[in-house]
Amino acid sequence: MWRAAVAAAVFACGGQSACSPYVFSENIQAFSAEMGAIDSSYRDSEQQIAAEQRLSNRIEWMRDRPLLAIGPGCASNATNATRCEIISAAPNSTAVAAANKADIGPNPAQPVAPPAEDVCGSGAGAAPPVRTGAAEAPAPLQPAQLLGTLENYTAALAAVTKAQDRAEFDNAAARVSAAVGRLVQTAPPPYSTAAPVAKASTNIVLWLVGEDLDYRRLHELQNATQIACEPIHELAAALGVVLTAERRTRLRGLHHLLALKIEAVNIARSKPQVTDQAYGAAIDDAEAVADAFQTVRATDPEAAAQALGDAHDALVIAVRNNDGEFAALVANLQTFSRRANDLAAAAAATASSANPSLTKSYEETRHEPDGHDRRYSPEP
Amino acid sequence: MNQTATIDDIRRSRDAALDALDDVIDEIDNEIAQTTKTGPYLAQLTKRYQDLRNEYAHISITATFAVLAQPGVIAAAATLTTLSAQMQTTAQELAAATNVLVKTAAVLALGQQFSDVIANAQKG
Predict the structure, then answer these.
(1) Nearest by CB to B67, which of A107, A131, A238?
(2) To pair with A91 at 20 to 30 A between CA atoms, which of A37, A201, A263, A301?
């Protein structure tokens, strides 16, 4: 009976590597880690955008000293969707109403890219449909939900292929086997003579259990990557839109901050009381913003989203073929990793805070006695 | 594929609108950088900047939410969420089997101790 069971297991798996989901463990861990890096980069960039907006406000408010007010996000019953911010009480823009009419519909003048090779189609018939319930409740996603969904999926891939789980199972199985052997050995004859047989039979049963669990994990991996294939394309395209929107917003904010910093340098330039040290510090401030701008502009979030889809396609093929040929998967993961690292570097790039010396020069200038036009010396 | 084309359309349309705004706002930023005296002109520049920036933000947000509200995107996210839960369940099965084995080993060790005690008692 054991022999039949062992033969069936070996036949089903067709050999050690063919039945193991753990050969994908390292690559999938990398895949999951890079997805996590993109998620954290997105959140870090959100914080940077808010910090840089505050820095711009600070410089402008020190320059203009407008009447300030409590922002709409500070209402006690407001949701956290709108941050609580101090705002200028100057009359609001009327351009927003015009922007409501902005055309965001399809642009027929733009050609649509030809469809890429259909990785998801082949073998898709083997994948059973998954009931999602989306038809009943099509609530719109938030950007954070999109990122969270992708991150949860890659984390689940990593969990299915976690080699450490199998190692722990083997350790536990070895302890059981040893305990069985010792227990039977301590029994009185004739039971003690059966100790080697009992230990061996326990080993086989445990091995079969382990193989069965491995097979189910591998099957889950094959099934899941196939089912996720097309949804990943869909979500990668959406992710590209979300990430590029954030990049553009940040670049816009950094450009304005750069303008204000250069304005500050130009003001310092014409003020005799500003020391060389303060003037140099103002230049350094502006240079730091220019560096941050350059770092963010060098990123290509669209390419990062595309790399996510490509890496997953390579995973689908590697898992489907399960022949130990991972070259394409590794190459695509490396590209994905580079793109994700670019985004992380951009999220970490910071513009320096307002220079205290120069701030002082603003204030000194502001209190000059000659001034209705209370600010700065005229250009030479 | 049709859904992806729709996302592409929204993105392209957004980018065309924001590219045009970028050009204008860049010019205003450059003018602000060169203007070292406050007064009506700088105030006007700043006001114009804020107006355009609001429009910029509005277009960007509208495009993002239009994409995230696409039925195909919502369905794809729901599929992945369901899959992820199934995969985590499967992954936990091995961990559960490991826990059973650990408990089994502990019980067997107790059984061995019991046998040892009985054997010693019989000798005594």
Answers:
(1) A238
(2) A263
